[in-house]
Amino acid sequence: MSVFIIRRLLQSVVVIWVMSLLVFGGVYLIGDPIDMLINPEADQEDIDAAIRALGLDKPITEQYWFFLINAVKGDLGSSFIFNEPALQLILARMPATMELAFAALFLSIVLGIPLGMWAGLHPNSLSGRSIMTGSILGFSLPSFWVGIMFIMFFAVVLGVLPSGGRGETTEFLGLQVSFLSWKGLSYILLPAINLALFKLSLVIRLSRAGTQEVIHQDYIKFARAKGISEKRVILVHVLKNIMIPVVTILGLEFGSVIAFAVVTETVFAWPGMGKLIIESIDQLDRPVIVAYLMIIVFMFIVINLVVDILYSVLDPRVRLQDVKA
Amino acid sequence: MEGEIPTLAVEGLKTFFFTKLGVAQAVNGVSFTVRKGEVVGLVGESGSGKSVTGFSLIGLVDPPGRVVEGKILFRGEDLAQADEDRMRSLRGRRIAMIFQDPMMTLNPVLRIDTQMIEAVRAHEKISEGDARIRARDALVQVGIPSPDERLKAYPHQFSGGMRQRVAIATALLHKPDLIIADEPTTALDVTIQGQILHEVQKLCRETGMSLIWITHDLSVVAGLADRICVMYAGKIVEKGKISDVLDSPLHPYTNGLIGSVPSHNRRGQPLAQIPGMTPSLLNLPQGCAFHPRCPRAGASCLVEPDITEPAKSDHQVRCVNPHLETS
Ligand SMILES: Nc1ncnc2c1ncn2[C@@H]1O[C@H](COP(=O)(O)OP(=O)(O)OP(=O)(O)O)[C@@H](O)[C@H]1O
Ligand code: SF4
Ligand SMILES: [Mg+2]
Fold first, then answer.
1. Of the residues B173, B193, B208, the one at which a domain ends
2. B210 alpha-carbon distance from chain centroid
3. Which of B122, B144, B173 is the last residue before a domain boundary?
4. What residues form DSSP beta bridges with B24?
5. B52 and B157 assigned to the same domain
6. Closest chain A residue to B97 measured between Cα atoms?
7. Are residues B137 and B19 located together in one domain of the fold?
8. How many domains, in total, are found in chain B?
9. Given an 8 Å threshold on Cβ–Cβ distance, is A240 in contact with B110?
10. Of B100, B104, B109, which has the smallest distance from its Cβ to A241's Cβ?
């Protein structure tokens, strides 16, 4: 197990380095921030001074080298706009995004698995087919449009839920969270459902496919032949088997939940990293963009590692292979 | 023995599958009895309806299949009329079943103890600790070494033969009156197969339970069964005492089956094969379903033959032109 983890960590370092090259190069290509940053009436001397101050007069290789040295020290540069360390700027907004992402993940699991299993057990019933139709809609409707419809319906027409923002937060383990107060919940509900829709549809499909496959296995028939209750057959024998692919895939998809949060946060004015990155791209605030992308890459790597470990905990067959390896 | 209620008496059982392509008459009027302590072999080619017969007995026919007709008298009670609760309470307690592929019968993500303890507690309100002791004793009974340790293992940590022993131990937990064994040794290699056969036979004698042994391999039941039913295309075509059927088969199909088993006294001769294939259940030949493959077929075979009245020691056949001259 530990050999496996060390090997994975070394691979991760290489991946992060390659990504830093791509991200830095890519951001360099998308445009020159000077035009955006400088007062159009400034004279050439001011412009040159600003360019030097931001380090933009150096060749790109040198800029990258500086970036890399500082990055290893934990400094991803300072925002051109806010004049604050980019990392700090992003980390300050991370809890809001994380809470939203976890809320979406939670909804996908607690709704998706039962709905998917139901559809798998009753594939020809009206309810089963409605669930599957719903999941197709969840897959295909654009997230921003659904978000806007949510706001129209619940905030504008019915007026029962706020249209955006995060509202009040409660302190929990040193973090500001929404889910501990009714008021906070009312703010997070719509964006969380909006963000969850795609993953919810995915979980429904995975659970249904898994249920339909598992339910025909001999071990389910054998379980029934033992005379155990149908409830136990479904909740223990079937559920435990379909949890493996669902948890694995959902875990791997968690990174993309955070990435998708960009859209939801923009629609619902949710003060998270996604909203920040959209604003930073607008203003070509290179250090923030680079720092954001690096953090996302880092998170993907951590998530994959955690999922692999979790997978081996859930599936005894994988556990054994690791011990041997 | 005479007059005693048999453990199982199946009468005119029909189990059909209502598929999109048509109705598959997988079990089409099957009757047989299993007396207390008796081993009955159910033999036939792949697709002849052996497994479906077994599943019908415990009420576990997969949809779109269902028992459409007939009686399943288990110690006098008709299970074809029993509700699901009643069936559940009989399954695993009074009637147990073991399946063909031991690699697939145990849930891969649950430990052996979980799977055996739940089987005990499905029918008896006893503590988990007591249930564990029962599970452990059952493992000992089927010859699994260090049972306490093995209980904590997962199925993939067992060999195929060991898994089948676990399945048999599970079937034995409640000392059932009847065990239905659906080709439980087919997936195992020959030495393990022999060991398991030997042990099952011993267990049957010791406990007095009845056994239905399903197989496509005549040589397996030859040394095991007291009586044998030969199935073809959903019907029993011949049944009787094992010695009668093997020594003087009446049905051309049984004769063909015996001819295709390697044996010592015919060494050197090529094995006879039954020509052709099992017919599709959706498109059965008219009359005797075996006639396209039968060497003795004649015009009279286009009319469905009835099974004969029990003649000498219950030996019955469903054929208009049986091998009477050889017996
Ligand atoms: N789930 C099902 N859906 C439709 N038809 C089925 C189903 N299960 C069985 N059948 C039909 O019943 C027939 C008999 O199947 P069964 O499993 O009883 O054969 P078998 O004698 O046990 O053969 P094998 O030696 O291959 O196990 C099959 O040929 C098939 O036509
Ligand atoms: S009835 Fe005719 S076709 Fe059928 S087994 Fe007998 S002889 Fe052959
Ligand atoms: Mg079978």
1. B173
2. 11
3. B173
4. B17
5. no
6. A225
7. no
8. 2
9. yes
10. B109
Same domain (yes/no): B270, B317: yes
Work out the angle between the directed axes of helices A286-314 and A273-282 (0-180°, nearest 10).
Answer: 150
Q: Ligand 1, from B15, B48, B60, B180: best to mutate by most atoms within 8 Å of Cβ? A: B48
Could you tell me if B274 and B192 lie in one domain?
yes
Per-residue b/e over A22-43, b at no fewer than 16 CB within 10 Å? ebbeebeeeeebeeebeeeeee
Q: What is the CATH number of the domain that holds A196?
A: 1.10.3720.10
Domain that holds residue B114: 95-173
Q: What is the pLDDT along chain B (327 residues), one digit of tens a residue?
A: 456 788 999 999 999 999 888 888 999 999 999 998 899 999 998 889 999 999 999 999 998 999 999 999 999 899 999 999 999 999 999 999 999 888 889 999 999 999 999 999 999 999 999 999 999 999 988 888 899 999 999 999 988 888 988 998 999 899 899 999 998 887 777 777 888 788 888 888 888 899 999 998 888 888 888 999 999 999 999 999 998 888 888 888 898 888 877 664 555 555 667 777 777 777 788 888 888 888 888 888 887 887 777 666 688 888 888 887 644
- B68 falls within a domain: yes
Supply the pTM of this predicted model.
Answer: 0.81
Q: What is the CATH number of the domain that holds B262?
A: 3.40.50.300
Q: What is the DSSP letter of B274?
A: -
Which atom of ligand 2 sits closest to the CA of residue B252?
5
- Over the range A242-252, which residues count as b (16 or more CB within 10 Å of their CB) and which as e? bbbbbbbebbe
Q: Running DSSP on this structure, what letter comes out for residue B290?
A: T
B80 phi, psi to nearest 5 deg: -65, -25
Selected residue of B87, B107, B114 to mutate for chain A interface (largest A Cβ count, 10 A): B107
Residue list, ligand 2 pocket, CB within 6 Å:
B 251-252, 288, 290-291, 294, 296-297, 301, 305, 319-321
Q: B80 with B204, same domain?
A: yes
Same domain, yes or no: B70 and B184: yes
One domain, residues B280 and B159: no
Measured from CB, residues less than 6 Å from any atom of ligand 1 are B 17, 19, 24, 26, 44, 46-52, 62, 65, 216, 281
Nearest CA to A23 out of A301, A289, A303, A298 is that of A289
Contacts of B99 in chain A (CB under 8 A): 218, 221-222
Is A206 strand, coil or helix? helix
A307 found inside a domain: yes
A314 neighbourhood in chain B, CB within 8 Å: 109
> B222 C-alpha to center of ligand 3: Å?
19
ipTM of the assembly? 0.89
- Closest ligand by atom to B20 CA: 1
What spacing in Å lies between the alpha carbon of B162 and ligand 2's midpoint?
42
